[in-house]
User: Which sequence fits this backbone?
């Protein structure tokens, strides 16, 4: 009985300690993507990081879940032009993605393209050309239409550097066609590249038209960063064609817009937030570790107590059995001694006809025990004692217990 209780207690405590660790939580990343985009579009980068860190630090999150979360962090930091942080999170995304059993080829291709975009944004064209050589047709099969559009934009700039301007415009037109269907919010990124290519082609009217088109979509979707970048490109355009008056005016607009969109302040705030979240995570892990240690100590104490009680029960049972054995042996010796005495020789034959139980009752009667006390001693009812005494009187040919 105690053994069963022991195992039940242990199983209960182990379930209490580890419950929930084997169950994974399902995340709706389509919904999370919408939240991240919504937060980032209005400058709520803190909310984005908090949302994603909850997934990254969740013990229920799968490797693929963490890949997605790190990838969204990469996008957030890239948007703020914090390329060191962006690349760090992209590498962490790849690390988690490779642990996953799903979409491995898609993940590898996607990260490869994103590394291309990081190098491109930082104007590292030697690295851009190296990565372009590594990108295979199979990689393009695994990327989204949006990513394909950005890939075409990179090819357009590479062609423009080789002065293949018509080919560059063709790439950008294809990218625009894709984004018009898939993600028009990013169209300003394509039109701003057209500005400089048309400038190099001395087609200034088309350059200014591209600016107007890009600015239209940036304002339509309330993309402050795109509005700012369109004006930066326009200022550069005016400087390059030596229209300094318009260049100064445009630069003043850029200065005003940049005050409203201060990515450095945002990055600094996010660094503080990430440090705070990191410290909170360490504190939480310490608390969880302490709870685990306390629970294990409690389990050990309970196990020790149960083993001690089990040991005492077994020991007590052994002692009780030994006492009963010694009492029976003593009783038998007393009876044998009794029947060997001269004054009771005439009863020896009758005594030998008694059962062991009846002999025990005779001995207890001689000790002055009542019927109730004899019953308690031998674990039998008082009526059973009376029944045995009746038979004993009959066998020994006596009339009462005093004759015994």
Assistant:
């Amino acid at each position: 009985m105690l053994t069963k209780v022991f195992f039940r207690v242990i199983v209960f405590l182990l379930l209490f300690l580890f419950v929930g660790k084997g169950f994974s939580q399902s995340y709706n990343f389509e919904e999370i993507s919408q939240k991240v985009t919504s937060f980032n579009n209005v400058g709520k980068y803190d909310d984005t990081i908090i949302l994603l860190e909850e997934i990254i630090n969740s013990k229920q999150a799968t490797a693929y879940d963490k890949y997605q979360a790190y990838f969204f962090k990469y996008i957030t930091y890239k948007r703020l032009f914090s390329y060191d942080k962006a690349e760090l999170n992209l590498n962490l995304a790849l690390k988690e993605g490779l642990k996953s059993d799903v979409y491995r080829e898609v993940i590898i291709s996607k990260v490869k393209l994103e590394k291309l975009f990081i190098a491109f944004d930082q104007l590292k064209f030697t690295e851009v050309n190296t990565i372009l050589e590594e990108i295979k047709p199979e990689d393009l099969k695994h990327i989204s239409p949006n990513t394909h559009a950005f890939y075409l934009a990179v090819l357009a700039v590479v062609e423009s550097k080789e002065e293949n301007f018509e080919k560059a415009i063709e790439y950008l037109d294809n990218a625009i066609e894709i984004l018009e269907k898939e993600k028009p919010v990013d169209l300003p990124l394509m039109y701003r590249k057209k500005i400089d290519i048309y400038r190099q082609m001395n087609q200034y009217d088309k350059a200014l038209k591209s600016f107007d088109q890009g600015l239209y979509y940036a304002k339509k979707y309330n993309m402050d960063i795109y509005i700012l970048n369109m004006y930066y490109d326009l200022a550069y355009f005016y400087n390059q064609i030596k229209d300094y008056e318009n260049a100064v005016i445009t630069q003043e607009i850029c200065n005003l817009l940049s005050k409203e969109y201060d990515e450095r302040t945002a990055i600094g705030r996010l660094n503080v937030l990430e440090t705070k979240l990191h410290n909170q995570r360490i504190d939480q892990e310490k608390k969880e570790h302490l709870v685990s240690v306390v629970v294990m100590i409690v389990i050990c104490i309970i196990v020790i107590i149960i083993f001690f009680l089990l040991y005492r029960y077994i020991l007590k049972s052994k002692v009780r059995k030994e006492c009963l054995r010694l009492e029976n042996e003593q009783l038998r010796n007393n009876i044998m001694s009794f029947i060997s005495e001269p004054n009771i020789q005439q009863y020896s034959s009758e005594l030998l006809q008694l059962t062991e139980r009846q002999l025990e009752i005779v001995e207890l009667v001689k000790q002055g025990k009542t019927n109730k006390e004899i019953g308690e001693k031998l674990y039998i009812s008082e009526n059973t004692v009376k029944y045995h005494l009746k038979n004993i009187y009959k066998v020994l040919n006596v009339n009462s217990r005093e004759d015994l």
Q: What stands out?
A: The CA atoms of residues 13 and 299 lie 7 Å apart. Residues 164-177+184-259 form one domain.
